[in-house]
Amino acid sequence: MSEAVERHEFGAEVGRLLDLVVHALYSDREIFLRELVANAADAVDRRRFEALTGGAPAVPEGAAVRIIPDKAARTITLSDPGIGMSKAEMAENLGTIARSGTRAFSQSLAEAGPADRPSLIGQFGVGFYSAFMVAERVEVTSRRAGGEEAWRWASEGRGDYTLAPAAREEAGTDIVLHVRPDAEEFLEPIRLRTIIRKWADHITVPVLIVQDGKEEAANEGTALWRKPKSEVSEESYAEFYQHLGHFFDKPWATLHWRAEGTVDFHALLFIPGMKPFQPVEGERESRVRLHVRRMFITDEAGLLPSWLRFVHGVVDTEDLPLNVSREMLQSTPVLARIRRAVTNRVLSELRTRAKDAADYAAFWENFGPVLKEGVWEDAEHRKDLAALLRFRSSAVEGWTSLADYVSRMKEGQEAIYLLSGETPEALAKSPQLEGFRARGVEVLLLSDGIDAFWPERLGSFEDKPIRSITQGSVDLSGIAGGEGAQGEAADVSRLLPLLRDALKEEVSEVRATDRLVDSAVVLAAPEHGPDLHMQRLLQRAGRGFGAGLPVLEINPRHALIGKLAARAETGGVEEAAGFLLDLARVQDGDSPRDPAAFARRVAEAFAAGLG
């Protein structure tokens, strides 16, 4: 028998190529098992197809890929009852790097054009060589279905390989990996089972792990997303959803469809019914799983934009070209079309569900802040997203949309007004709202961190400009209905320049306003630049430079301002000016410039009032 052993050199610069496969092509050593199982599943599918056309014996009943770890011998054996290989095919497919029998077979099927051709995974002919990441020697024994001879291919992954006659009772292939000392973790059945569950859980060929003579299923074997919707129960959807993302709730929405046309793919996506324990605000990438022909490839394909990262699920395609490692996706038009189609499908679902206000409110309270990010960063979908936004309001209970706000706008009102801050409760009590409430003008109350950013990008809705009420001078005099501030206004023409002079280092302007009712003062931002909430965020982040000084607005109808106006005729108001600025800061949720001094001043004034 030894004389029949033939030694061959690989049909490529194997030294460099195998080193690339082992050390650079794959980022995770466990990928070797995915590649070998994928090849075995392909071989079974190929035999099943050829049996239909009379080109091979039928696949035996109970066909499965068997994985047999042997700690004592330090080997892992993968056995399949697939199509097998002849001597010539072993030399051609295993002896030439980047030569793939699967790929050649797929090309021949495409040329023949059979409508029911099988789904085959291998494309590039290098997956097999990933075995050398964990094996110091690889032996392949194979017998072609319909043939009588078996042959053994063996190599240590250097410059050559051997081919020798062998024995195998049935058609198929056995691959024996002689495991490296630093890869003994892969001899543990539980480790192998975990890898199969991660990468090959849904391929249709059963994968069994053999331990102590007993066989245990390692994969589920059912790709739920490839079934017709009519054949999947709500319980099955919920079970898969919980398994997929380790969730404990039921999904708020389930999207299951097959896309056909310019690109074909199956998709099963879920929108969770509750916030995950891991905040979605902290993770910026979408983790929808990409499968190719049921085989998991990656969850880092960016199949959805970051502002839909709360969506979980699977997209499975047969059309997507991959590079040789299957871990780094090419930027192909096919992938771009899949991304666009999946994103539009999720947006369509949200539009439909948004028609039920109570149902949509549950979603919005969980993921509204994330969806708002899309208004800031995605010009293509900004208009669609604007219609999906929901807000608290100074005028109505619960959540309201921009469209509903516009329908309630007062006669003469030209803009959509909003106020940003820390919490809706604090905003509802803000003195910034006094003049708007007095005139019956609604203001949207925004309290998410992203609310300081997106309104600038959106700019308008239904041709109505969106405006922060803390930015610039807001003129409400032209709005019909309601009443503005009541009472006689004091003459503040002398007081204003004195306050400006006293506060020249701390404010950009001091001016009278008619948008206050009960409060004496309020702060505003300059006409150009960030509003007050954005300025506070910038200052907390240590980036307050360039934000500009605030504007101090005074209410000439307030008793305090009236008394200061009278004092301005005869004496200075420098100390009172600082008190007014601190008072305005406290009303907006900021600390006074000198908290201790401000507290003493308030205590003294209170004591004087009691006297």
Automatic annotation (TrEMBL):
Binding positions for ATP per the UniProt entry: 35, 39, 80, 85, 93, 100-101, 123-128, 173, 326
PROSITE patterns documented for this protein: HSP90 (PS00298)
Molecular function per GO: ATP binding; ATP hydrolysis activity; ATP-dependent protein folding chaperone; unfolded protein binding
UniProt xrefs under InterPro entries: HATPase_C_sf (IPR036890), Heat_shock_protein_90_CS (IPR019805), HSP90_C (IPR037196), Hsp90_fam (IPR001404), Hsp90_N (IPR020575), Ribosomal_Su5_D2-typ_SF (IPR020568)
Region (A): 1-326
Pfam families per record: HATPase_c_3 (PF13589), HSP90 (PF00183)
UniProtKB keywords: ATP-binding, Chaperone, Cytoplasm, Nucleotide-binding, Stress response
Localization (cell): Cytoplasm
CDD domains: HATPase_Hsp90-like
Top-rank taxon, per record: Bacteria
Region spans: C: 537-611
Any one GO cellular component localisation term in the record: cytoplasm
Entry-linked SUPFAM superfamilies: ATPase domain of HSP90 chaperone/DNA topoisomerase II/histidine kinase, HSP90 C-terminal domain, Ribosomal protein S5 domain 2-like
Function: Molecular chaperone. Has ATPase activity.
NCBIfam families: PRK05218.1
Family listed: Belongs to the heat shock protein 90 family.
Assembly mode: Homodimer.
Protein name: Chaperone protein HtpG
Organism: Muricoccus pecuniae
Gene label: htpG
